[in-house]
Amino acid sequence: MSDEEKEKQKGEIASLYPFNVMRPFTDLWEELQRGVFLPWEQRPWMFPRGLLTPERWARSPLVDLIDKGDRFIVRAETPGFSKEDLKIEITPNTIEISGETKQETKQEENKYRLYERSYASIHRKLSFPEKVKPGEATATLKDGVLELEVPKAVPIREEDKHQVKIK
Questions:
Q1: Does an H or E element contain 42, and which?
Q2: pTM of the model
Q3: Domains plus CATH for the chain?
Q4: pLDDT digit string, tens, across residues 58-79
Q5: Can you tell me the distance from the alpha carbon of 58 to that of 81, in angstroms, rounded to the nearest whole number?
C-alpha cells in the first residue's frame, strides 16, 4: 500500500468520527515541545498573551460609581499618588484611571550610600451605564481619594421613569 493510499485511508477512518477526542492534547503537547527551545518571554505557557502589558502588572484601585441623577460620581482610592502622577481619560462611555509614582531616598553617611526606591502603578477602566459629557468632568484629589463628577449626556429624571404592570 502506497503512502497516498495510507493517507486516504486515514482520512476515511477519521471522517467516521465526528471529532478527534485526543486533538486538544496532541496540539498542547506539540506546542510545549516547540516552546522548549524558545526564549523565556516567547514561551506561551510562561507568559500568556497580554500578560506582559503594563495594565496587567498595575494594581487595580477600589472604585465607587454613584448615580446622582444628572451626573455620576466616581471615587477611586489612590493613596501615595499626587495629582501629577495620575492620568484620567474619559469618553462618552468609559473612564480610565491610571498612574505611576516613584520615590527615591538617598543617604550618604561615612562613605556608605543607601538608596531606597519604591514604585507603584494603578490602572482601572470602567464603563458608564449611560452616556456622559467628558468635556465637563471635574476632578479633585484629597487624602488619597480621587473624586470625579461627570455629567450625564441626557439625564434621566425620576418623572421620566414609569413602572410597567404585568397583566
A1: none
A2: 0.58
A3: 3-42 (no CATH), 54-151 (2.60.40.790)
A4: 688 899 999 998 999 999 999 9
A5: 14
